[in-house]
Amino acid sequence: MTDPVPAETFSAQAFSAQAFSAQAWARNAEAYEAIRTMPFNAELAAGSLARARFIHYIVQDAHYLVGFSRALAMAAAKAPNPDRMVQFARAAETAIVVERSLHGGFFRDYGIDAATFADTPLSPPCDHYVSYLLATAYAEPYEVVLGALLPCFWIYAEIGRDIFSRARADNPYRAWIDTYAGEDFAQAVAEMIAATDEAAAGASPDVRARMHNAYAQATRLEYLFWDGAYREACWPV
């Protein structure tokens, strides 16, 4: 079991009130609370989440991370300097590595082979989220792309830390909890927040407003993704 990450590592209170990150978190605090307390995460923390629901989630999350890594790669291509290029290129690689290690472990445990995964389509919420991120990464400027990517980092870290604080040691989903409550992920979140605040600091009022819209939309899609996993959402036709 990992050690918990201190709350101040990436909490909104750790950043200037004028920073984009602090403003975005405050504007979307109600949405975050809805995500934190939704049935999927409450049952995940209790260790009572149905296995079928978690399997649905982990398969869709593996699909999602492929799209997320593509969006990160496009952020790297649009980055204004080499340091940010390296940051996002590495983040894109890490997203795939996580999929192959964390998800791969669960796939082995649950008997999900490569063919089964490949034959499972993206669920409506997953498809919506991936399509939104890729469209934003293609069409929007660097600053707005970061606004859309930040919620996945930050909300997962906050949820991981929150669940860690109340999950029992023998929780069957402990590997997931430890990954997102751990120091390595917290460091990646802090770097993402710093890059987004840096981008926002030099943005025009119009671009900054679009960053806020992107952040809010991605936050809503985070909710839909977890809710879809809980409902085992699939295409009706």
Automatic annotation (TrEMBL):
Its EC number(s): 3.5.99.2
Source organism, top-level taxon: Bacteria
Keywords, comma-separated and alphabetical: Hydrolase
Family matches, as Pfam families: TENA_THI-4 (PF03070)
Residue ranges occupied by any Thiaminase-2/PQQC domain in the UniProt entry: 39-231
A single GO molecular function term of this UniProt record: thiaminase activity
InterPro entries: Haem_Oase-like_multi-hlx (IPR016084), Thiaminase-2/PQQC (IPR004305), Thiamine_Salvage_TenA (IPR050967)
Major enzyme class: hydrolase
Name of the protein in its database record: Thiaminase/transcriptional activator TenA
Native organism: Methylobacterium goesingense
